[in-house]
Amino acid sequence: MKLFTAGPVACYPEVLEEMGRQMFSHRSEEYHRLHRDTVGRLKWFLNTGQRVFLFPSSSTGAMEASIRNCVKKKVLCVVAGEFGERYARVAEANGREVVVLQTELGKPALPERLDEELRKHPDVEAVTITYCETSLGLLNPLPELSEVVKEHGKLLLVDAVSAFGGVEFYPDELGLDVCFAGSQKCLGLPPGMAVVWVSEEAMARSRTMVNKGWYFDFERYERSQEKDETPVTPPIPLILALNRVLRMIEEKGKKRYFEEYRERAERILGGIRELGLNLFTEEEYTSPTIFCVNAPPHLSGLEIYRRMREKGVELAQGYGKLKERTFRIGNMGYITLGDIEEMFEKLAEVLRG
Ligand SMILES: Cc1ncc(COP(=O)(O)O)c(C=O)c1O
Questions:
Q1: In which domain, by residue range, is 312 found?
Q2: CB of 60 closer than 6 angstroms to any ligand 1 atom
Q3: Does residue 230 line the site of ligand 1, with CB under 6 A?
């Protein structure tokens, strides 16, 4: 099956090879070397001198950690779809008061609106933003939103799960405070691990936080990092695979790596247009990592998804209320230009009926 999913995505062959290696202890010299080298490569990839933690959980664990370490009482959550909504639910489930900035379906959060909300709620300590709202293929304008958050002196917690490794951005330059990603998206790894970047200010906040729990305490991660370790048993096969992907990116060059992502995105956008289809989101705010496409009048999104599966291609179904009206094409992980050509040939056949 060729995968154009929203994650888990197809893994690079080198990753699959790496995942089959024999284990070693997470307290051994082999692990220390691997940990040190992987964290160093992540810092290179993110162009940062700040701390980057390897988290033994899926991305939602990192989401919960950002709340527990950085928010005592109240947080403003920007909600543009399913994952923005999840951030708000996670904060509520952790007993925090949540103010929601809900955008119109398919529309991004705009800086003026965020400014307005922050003026109305000056007591929020942090703002959460989903950089790429995977459910809609929507890229929120993070640089502009970040400026507003910083003008109001709040912490900025960013879910970059489906942007990290597919959209070129640097957390220090953007003034973020916590930024996390999961393994099963653009980096082309299997699921089960997250990467969490934490600013000095977020770390300082964590140090003063009470009741932040044990498992996701940033201070604990920082102390372990000094020994090139994690506080709990890490997913070693995934870290080996992440290390391999980062080495592959280094060999290719970061510039070329992101160019290739853009080339693939352009090819997918071109293919959508050639078939006379259009996007659910405005092009200006469309993520290069996942595309939400309006289904044509004669065929539902769900039917397109099903028929493509019969032809050996897995796309992603539309989200929630949009299941019938849309379908999604992922551009994450191991996809070649040849795969894209093949996918569009099959999509053309499906649309012809
Ligand atoms: C933007 C975003 N945030 C969070 C998640 C949740 O990730 P996980 O299921 O790995 O916890 C996803 C998964 O699709 C996502 O796309």
A1: 2-6+254-352
A2: yes
A3: no
As a whole number of angstroms, the distance between CA 278 and CA 10 comes to 25
Do 80 and 210 have their domain in common? yes
Residue that terminates a domain, selected from 196, 227, 251: 251
Nearest Cα residue to 158 out of 132, 142, 137, 179: 179
160 shares its domain with 64: yes
Is residue 214 located within the same domain as residue 317? no
pTM over 0.70: yes
Which of 3, 9, 55, 59 to probe ligand 1 with, by most ligand atoms within 8 A of CB? 59
267/346 Cα distance (integer angstroms): 15
Q: The domain that contains 339 carries what CATH number?
A: 3.90.1150.10
pLDDT digits (tens, 9 = 90+) for 303-329: 999 999 999 999 999 998 899 999 999
Whether ligand 1 lies within 6 angstroms of the CB of 134 is answered as yes
315 and 207: one domain?
Answer: no
Q: How far is the CA of 133 from the centre of ligand 1 (A)?
A: 9
Ligand 1 proximity of 50 Cβ (cutoff 6 Å): no
